[in-house]
Write a structure and sequence with these properties.
Glucose Permease (Domain IIA), eight-stranded antiparallel beta sheet, three-stranded antiparallel beta sheet
C-alpha cells in the first residue's frame, strides 16, 4: 500500500506539471507540399540517357536554359534582320537604279536644250548686223534663257543623291557580292550533284570490274587445270623411265623479285584491290606455264597418219628378231608435211645411217625430238624453229619398208613413249 501510494503521488505531480506547461508548447502545422502545382518556366531540368543497362543524368540549370533561349532569340533576330536587309537593299538598289536612269535622261534632255540654245545664239550673232547687236533687249533675253537652263542643271546636280560616287559604288559592290554569292552556291550545288553522279558511276564500274575479274579468274583456273592435266598425262609415260617432268625445275619465274604485281593506281576498295592482285597472280602463273609448255612437244607432227609400229619392244621388220623401238612409226603418204610441236633449236639435219635423212631438235627443259626417214628437210643445223613450223616431208630413206615418219621424244636423254605426247590436248 505504501508503494502504491508513492506511485500515485508521483503520477499526480507529473499531471500537475503538464497542466502548468501545456500552454507553452506550440503545435506546428504540417507544411503543405504541392505536387500538382505549376513550376517555374526555367526550373532545373534533368535529362536521363539509358544505354547498356546504365543511366546517365545530365542537369540543365535555369541559367543555362535562359542563356540558350537568349542565344536562339539573338540568332533568330539576326537571321530575320539579315533577310530583311537583303530584300530591302535589293529594293533600294532597284529604286536607285530607276531614279538614276530617270535623272540621267533629264540631264541629257537639259544638255540637249542647252546646246540647242547656244547654237541659236551663235547663229543669231552671225545673222544680225551691227545695229541689231545694239539691241540689248534681244541679247539679254537669250542670255537669261541660257542662265535659266544652266541653273536647272546646277540644281539637279547639287540636289541629286545619285551623284555621290562613294555611295553608288558601295551599293553596286554589295549587289555584286550578293550575286557572286548566289552564283557560288549554284555552282557548288552543281558540283555536288556531279560528284554524286560520279560516285554512282564508280560504284557501277567497280561492280562490273569485280564481275570481269571473277570471270578472268575462272578462265585462268580452267586454263591452269588443263595445263596441269597435260603435264600429269605425259608424266605417266616419263615415270615409266624413272623420270619426272617438273615445269618449275628450271624456272626463272621468281629470279627478279617475286610474283607479278601490276603497277597500278591504289584502289580504295580493298575487296576489289585484293581480287585484282589475286587475278593478276593467276594470269602470271598461266602465262608462265604456257611459255614452258611451248618447249614441250604436245600434239601430232603429221596431220594424217596411222600407227604402224608402237614404242617399246617389237619384232624387227627386216630380220624378225626381237628389238627395242625407241620411237613410233607413223605411216603417211610420201611428201606430207611434218611440223614441230614445240619451239627449239635444230641440232642436226643430215643423213644418219639406218635413220636415213634425220632432223633433231633440242626444245630445252630436257626435251628433244627426232624425225627420221625423211624425204626432204627444210631446216639446217643451228636454225631456231617455233611451235607449228614445217621442218620436213615424210619419206622412206634409210632402213625403211615404206613411207612413214619415225618419231622419237627424249627427256633428259631417255626415250619416252611419243604417243602420250601426241594424244595430249592443250
Amino acid at each position: 500500500m505504501q508503494i502504491f501510494a508513492c506511485i500515485s503521488g508521483k503520477v499526480l505531480k507529473y499531471v500537475d506539471f503538464m497542466k502548468k506547461n501545456i500552454r507553452k508548447i506550440k503545435i506546428k502545422k504540417p507544411s503543405m507540399v504541392h505536387y500538382g502545382g505549376r513550376k517555374p518556366l526555367f526550373s532545373n531540368k534533368e535529362i536521363i540517357f539509358r544505354s547498356g543497362g546504365r543511366a546517365k543524368v545530365f542537369n540543365i540549370s535555369s541559367r543555362l536554359q535562359m542563356f540558350l533561349v537568349v542565344l536562339l532569340m539573338v540568332i533568330g533576330s539576326w537571321s530575320a534582320y539579315s533577310y530583311y536587309m537583303y530584300n530591302k537593299s535589293d529594293q533600294i538598289i532597284s529604286f536607285k537604279d530607276r531614279e538614276l536612269d530617270e535623272t540621267r535622261d533629264a540631264y541629257v534632255n537639259l544638255m540637249t536644250d542647252f546646246v540647242a540654245i547656244h547654237r541659236n545664239i551663235s547663229s543669231m550673232f552671225k545673222l544680225i548686223d551691227e545695229e541689231q547687236l545694239k539691241d540689248e533687249l534681244n541679247i539679254n533675253r537669250y542670255k537669261q534663257q541660257a542662265q535659266v537652263v544652266e541653273e536647272k542643271i546646277r540644281q539637279i546636280t547639287d540636289a541629286s543623291d545619285w551623284v555621290k560616287t562613294d555611295e553608288l559604288e558601295e551599293k553596286t559592290t554589295l549587289r555584286d557580292a550578293l550575286l557572286q554569292r548566289d552564283l557560288a552556291v549554284s555552282e557548288r550545288d552543281e558540283l555536288l550533284a556531279k560528284i554524286e553522279l560520279l560516285e554512282e558511276n564508280i560504284q557501277k564500274l567497280e561492280t562490273a570490274e569485280m564481275e570481269i575479274l571473277n570471270r578472268v579468274g575462272q578462265l585462268s583456273d580452267k586454263e591452269m587445270s588443263k595445263i596441269k592435266e597435260v603435264i600429269s598425262a605425259i608424266n605417266k609415260s616419263i615415270k615409266k623411265q624413272n623420270k619426272y617432268f617438273n615445269p618449275l625445275a628450271n624456272s626463272k619465274k621468281d629470279s627478279t623479285g617475286g610474283a607479278y604485281e601490276p603497277d597500278m593506281t591504289v584502289v580504295a576498295n580493298e575487296e576489289l584491290s585484293k581480287k585484282m592482285q589475286e587475278v593478276f597472280t593467276q594470269i602470271d602463273d598461266v602465262s608462265y606455264y604456257r611459255e614452258v609448255m611451248k618447249s614441250v612437244p604436245i600434239g601430232k607432227p603429221v596431220w594424217s597418219y596411222w600407227l604402224s609400229s608402237a614404242f617399246g619392244h617389237r619384232s624387227d621388220p627386216f630380220n624378225k628378231k626381237s628389238a627395242t623401238h625407241k620411237g613410233v612409226d607413223l605411216a603417211s603418204n610420201k611428201g606430207n608435211k611434218i611440223r614441230t610441236m614445240a619451239k627449239g633449236k635444230v641440232t642436226r639435219s643430215s643423213w644418219n645411217g639406218g635413220y636415213g635423212l634425220m632432223v633433231e631438235i633440242d626444245h630445252g627443259n630436257g626435251f628433244k625430238t627426232k624425225y627420221a626417214h625423211l624425204n626432204k628437210s627444210y631446216v639446217k643445223k643451228g636454225d631456231y624453229v617455233e611451235q607449228g613450223d614445217t621442218i620436213a616431208e615424210v619419206g622412206s630413206t634409210g632402213r625403211s619398208t615404206g613411207p612413214h615418219l619415225h618419231y622419237e621424244v627424249l627427256y633428259n636423254g631417255t626415250p619416252v613413249d611419243p604417243m602420250t605426247f601426241i594424244k595430249a590436248q592443250m
